[in-house]
Design brief:
By secondary structure, this protein is of the alpha/beta class. The chain is built from six helices and six strands, in the order E-H-H-E-H-E-H-E-H-E-H-E.
Length: 140
């Protein structure tokens, strides 16, 4: 069963999306995480591959550019409980283009676009960055 340490998350991020609170207040659902980068070719697909078989989460990846392999859509945002973006520009684009939706929490991982798909250093950075955020979501 999942539960949220709300005080930790509030202290870390300042607020928690209503969608995230509602999903885990009395639920055993898995967290839906959307990883986003620019073109959905290297960073976000790597993150998706890392967490694809993780029993704690359902994961997807998308890109914000029109040339993205898999372009982010409203259906992805509505599906997501949490969006982890690689750069601040990704968060800005999502909040601008999808302001009409109830957006889930969007957190910037600060991972620059300088790695190839499944690069060992990229894998390490994604794991460290993501786990630092997800440590506030407990599994019992």
């Amino acid at each position: 069963m999942f539960y949220l340490d709300f005080c930790s998350i509030l202290n870390l991020f300042g607020s928690v999306s209503k969608k995230l609170v509602n999903k885990f207040s009395n639920s055993v659902n898995r967290l839906n995480i959307l990883f986003v980068c620019s073109k959905n070719r290297w960073r976000s697909p790597t993150a998706e591959a890392i967490y694809r078989n993780n029993s704690r989460f359902n994961v997807r990846s998308a890109g914000i550019n029109t040339s993205a392999r898999k372009r982010i859509a409203a259906t992805d945002i509505n599906w997501a409980d949490l969006i982890l973006v690689m750069e601040n520009k990704h968060k800005k684009r999502i909040t601008s283009e999808y302001s009409y939706l109830e957006l889930p929490q969007i957190i910037v991982l600060d991972i620059p676009d300088e790695y190839q798909y499944m690069d060992e250093e990229l894998i390490s950075i994604i794991k460290i960055s993501t786990e630092n955020i997800l440590k506030n979501i407990k599994i019992i």
